Amino acid sequence: MDRVEVLTFEEIERVANICVQRFGFDGIRLTGGEPTVRAQLPVLVSRLAAIKSPLTGRPIDLSMTTNGATLTTLAPDLKQAGLNRINISCDSLSRERFQKLTRRDQLERVLAGIDAAIDAGFDPVKLNIVAMRGENDDEMVDFATFGRNKGVQPRFIEFMPLDADKGWSIEQVFTAEEIVAKINAVYPVEAVTRGSDPATLYRYLDGKGYFGVIPSVTRPFCESCDRIRITAEGKLRTCLFAIKEFDIRALLRGGATDDELADALKGAVATKWAGHKIGQVNFIRPARSMSQIGG
Which of 20, 177, 211, 254 is the most buried (most CB within 10 A)? Predict the structure, then answer.
């Protein structure tokens, strides 16, 4: 993508300000592809961290999802710039399997990035693990053990039809129920009440932390979803699986006022549908993969 197509920091900050000041957004997450490939990322973080809620007068909750490969150098600067929380994607603790899934031999860098995030003071550090039957479903307890020992929080995500290879099938989904059962058999847990967060949280009965499960396929949480997404080039999506996108960049660069931008955001959110219909005959797969949308 040509650099001119990507939103500038000023444009991102302007949209974020409108979301917080006009509509009471209390959290912003920077996602991928991979957000750490953006030059001068701590500068953007500092701009967003300065935005304060009109309701509380406090800064909004600012978080990021990353592959973790560059955190050994970036984590301290991101923390100092005002990033509150961090999620690190890691689908396997096996070097060979990690390389197969990601096409990169970088597991050691990711593990070092997890340590760097902890050392920088991020709390909690969360691990995003996409659970895939026949790929990594035998590692659920390994990740639970890793999380308990490191003091980080695994978040197991059901495999969704957003893979770049378009090879997804319902048979590959290792379900939330199966994930919890595997871990509970080794480390007994109890569920914690979930609000609008997509993850159902589980607490270890021995007090050694938590893990989350996102049952996006088998138990959709669409009715409580309060999120929208803006892609790198300024397209607003009301759902990961949205078919329609709204061109915010055209408004930003076409002289739109803040009132006009706010009206466009409101109009887009009004189209937010009741559910994504994964597994149903009328499900339509989005043209974009997860790496193009932002996880």
Answer: 211
